[in-house]
Design goal:
Shape: elongated
Helix content: under 10%
Number of helices: 0
Strand content: 25-35%
Distance between the termini: 46 Å
Mean pLDDT: 87
CATH architecture of one domain: Sandwich
Strand order of the largest sheet: 3-10-5-8
Low-confidence stretches: none
CATH topology of one domain: Jelly Rolls
Largest sheet: 4 strands, antiparallel
Order of helices and strands: EEEEEEEEEE
């Protein structure tokens, strides 16, 4: 049985390419126009470092492969005893945040750090 297009007129629109009715799109999903990869090191173990100001949808933090100690990742109060995630070399974690600068890192060994990708 064919659909009565008049019954669904509120949910239809004319496709300009084909000149035929089609369902309306309630929301257009789009990706991020930002894709940035960065490096960040903790110069002195026990001193937290904030990631850069990058508006985004998510940030994946990856402990550098040459690290010998732990990387602690979390908020503004991150430390070796207060953290969201502890990463060993090559471990990663993805945070759903609207800016990379909401994430801080600390390290158990001076000079070690992370790479991260903000999308």
């Amino acid at each position: 049985m064919p659909l009565d297009q008049r019954q669904y007129a509120h949910a239809m629109e004319l496709d300009t390419a084909t000149d035929k009715p089609m369902p309306k799109v309630a929301a257009q999903l789009t990706g991020s126009n930002v894709l940035q990869g960065k490096l960040k090191n903790v110069v002195t173990a026990g001193t937290r470092v904030r990631l850069d100001d990058i508006p985004c949808r998510e940030v994946t933090v990856i402990a550098r492969k040459g690290n010998t100690g732990s990387i602690y990742v979390g908020g503004a109060d991150v430390s070796s005893s207060v953290f969201g995630v502890e990463l060993a070399a090559k471990d990663s974690f993805t945070f759903i945040v609207n800016n990379a600068n909401l994430i801080y890192i600390d390290a158990s060994v001076s000079g070690e750090g992370v790479s991260y990708v903000a999308v």
